[in-house]
Write a structure and sequence with these properties.
Blueprint lengths: L15 E5 L2 E8 L4 E6 L2 E11 L17 E6 L5 E9 L3 E6 L6 E5 L2 E2 L2 E3 L3 E10 L3 E10 L8 E7 L9 E7 L2 E7 L4 E8 L14 E9 L1
Antiparallel strand pairs: 1-2, 1-8, 2-3, 3-4, 4-5, 5-6, 6-7, 7-8, 9-11, 10-13, 11-12, 12-17, 13-16, 14-15, 15-16
Length: 221
């Protein structure tokens, strides 16, 4: 698969689980604590620490450094061996890297799993989606309440599946329909929605002008 480096943005997180496109048995897991685990066919064969920098040299090689470059360093915890990679770019689904001093391009696919978002009684969903990207989750949901939602009150509107729950409470802000909403996802899976500013939402047994569209929201684990 030929990938143009211009397709990738540099602002997506490397944290998560990735599989090499040319060999899906080869898997690498980046954790937020800067630890990295390399697996082959499900068997752990190397534990590294990882850092990202934009300096020269990298692994003893003089490399170009400017506002477009970024380098990944992997250091074997057991033997202190180092691998250095030019990060061509990272997106939600893909990452492209080139080994420093050796050339070539490797494409890795992020391991993405779907979760479930279940609306609670009093809130009917029209559509929703939540996905686990390894180090973070992204979701959206469109719903309408059957009861009045006042400004400034936090309502428990939904629960999310265990595979998409954060380790600490995550709060996000979203503006839609002339209202500013605060959405909080708790470690137990509860999802709370609060109108921070704007008008209240009137309840109805069917969707009229009370439909709330929240998305796309993202939070780290």
């Amino acid at each position: 698969m030929l990938i143009s480096t211009s397709l990738f943005s540099q602002d997506a997180s490397i944290v998560g689980t990735w599989k090499f496109e040319e060999d899906s048995n080869s898997e690498i897991v980046f954790l937020p604590n800067n630890m990295c685990y390399r697996y082959y066919s499900g068997v752990l064969n190397e534990t590294d620490s990882w850092t990202i920098s934009n300096t020269s040299p990298q692994c003893g090689e003089t490399v170009p450094v400017d506002e477009t470059t970024s380098y990944l360093q992997l250091k074997d915890i057991k033997f202190n061996d180092e691998d250095c990679w030019l990060i061509n770019g990272i997106r939600d689904e893909f990452m492209s890297i080139s080994p420093v001093g050796r050339g070539g391009v490797f494409v890795l696919n992020r391991v993405i799993t779907s979760g479930t978002l279940t609306m609670l009684p009093g809130f009917n969903y029209l559509t929703n989606c939540i996905k686990n990207y390894g180090g973070y989750a992204m979701f959206y949901f469109v719903f309408y309440p059957t009861s009045y939602m006042s400004v400034g009150t936090s309502y428990r509107v939904a629960t999310i599946s265990e595979n998409c729950r954060p380790t600490v409470a995550r709060e996000m802000s979203f503006t839609t329909g002339g209202r500013v909403w605060s959405v909080t996802v708790n470690p137990n899976g509860d999802v709370y929605a609060k109108i921070v500013s704007g008008s209240a939402v009137y309840g109805s047994s069917y969707p009229t002008n009370n439909v709330v569209s929240l998305g796309t929201l993202m939070y780290n684990y």
